[in-house]
Amino acid sequence: MPPSSEPKGYDVIGDVHGCAAELHELLHLLGYRVDESSGAYAHPERQAIFVGDLVDRGPGQLDVLQTVRRMTDHGSARVVMGNHEFNAIAYATANPDEPGEFLRRHSGKNTNQHRAFLDQLDDDSRADYLDWFLSMPMWLDLGPIRVVHACWHEPSMRVVKDALGSERFTTRDQLVRASTKGDPLYDAVEVLLKGPELDLAAYGQPPYYDKDGAVRGKARVAWWRDGASTLHELSVMDSNFMTADGEPYPPLPDIEVPARDRSFAYAGDVPVFYGHYWRRGRPQRGADFTDHTACVDFSAIKTGALVAYRWSGETTIREQHYVNVKA
Length: 327
Ligand SMILES: [Mn+2]
Hints:
Bound molecules: manganese (II) ion
Distance between the termini: 30 Å
Mean pLDDT: 95
Number of strands: 18
Shape: globular
Largest sheet: 5 strands, mixed
Helix content: 25-40%
CATH class of the domain at 9-151 and 267-323: Alpha Beta
Strand order of the largest sheet: 5-4-1-17-18
CATH topology of the domain at 9-151 and 267-323: Purple Acid Phosphatase, chain A, domain 2
Order of helices and strands: EHEEEHEHHHHEEHHHEEEEHEHEEEEEE
Strand content: 15-25%
C-alpha cells in the first residue's frame, strides 16, 4: 500500500517465530510484492498487521525481522508486541536492583528458548532490533478492528496507559515495573501478552498435571467465549490433564466467578485478532474464532501453517477469510 493512502483492508498475520520461507510464501500468496525503491513488500490496496512473536525458534530470525521492519518503515505493515519481543528486551536489560542479573533471568530454560535469536543476530543488529521491539505498541485499536498478541482486556489496558502514558514502553523504569511480580503493570502486561489465567485454589479446585507431568494451579482463560461467566465456561482444560492420583481431571464446576475474572470474557462488537495460542488444523468456530474474535496463530513453527485473516470490512468473522490454513 502506498504510505499515504488508507488501506481497503487488513491482512492479519499470525506468530512468525523466525519462519522466513513461510513468511515470503504467505506474503506472495496475499498479493504483496517487493517495492523496488524501498525493498519492502507492499500491496496496492491493503496493509499487513503482525500479531507479534516474530522471533525465537525458527531458522530465519534476521530475514523475518528485516522483512517486517522494511514493511512497517514503508507503511505497508504494522506490528504489535508479542511476549517473545517483550522477553527479548527483558533478557537484554540489566536489573538495577540486582547487580549482574537481568530483568529476565539467563536461566538455561530462558536462554534455550531464546537461542535462535541470540545465535543468528550479531550484537549490533540485536541491539538495533531490540530498540525496535521496545517501540512496538502492545495493542492496536484501528476502529473497525482490534489487534493484540494474547488478550484484549480493557482494564489491563487502562493500567498500562496510566503507567506508560500510552500503549508502548518508553523508559527502562517501566520495564523494571513490568518485570516485577506483584506490580499492577506486571499483571496487566501478562494478561495482554500471555493471556489471563484463573487461580484454581481460589475456587477450591485442586491443581492438575499437564501432558508433561508438570503440576499447575492455574487454568488458562477462554476470554474469547462471549458470555462466559462461570469457572467451567471460562477455563481451558485439556482432556489429557490429570489429577494427583493419575485420574482424568474432572470437569470444573459451574461456579460463578467474581467481576474481575469475569471481565476477561470479550463482550465487544468490534472484531479482535490475536495470536499466541498455538492452534492446529482448520479454524474451528467456538475454539479458534467466534463472531467477534479470531486467532491467527496456527503453529507455523510446529508443522502447522503461517496463517493470515483477510479482513475487508466485515463486522463478524468468517471462516473462509482465513488464508493458508492446513486441511
Ligand atoms: Mn506468544
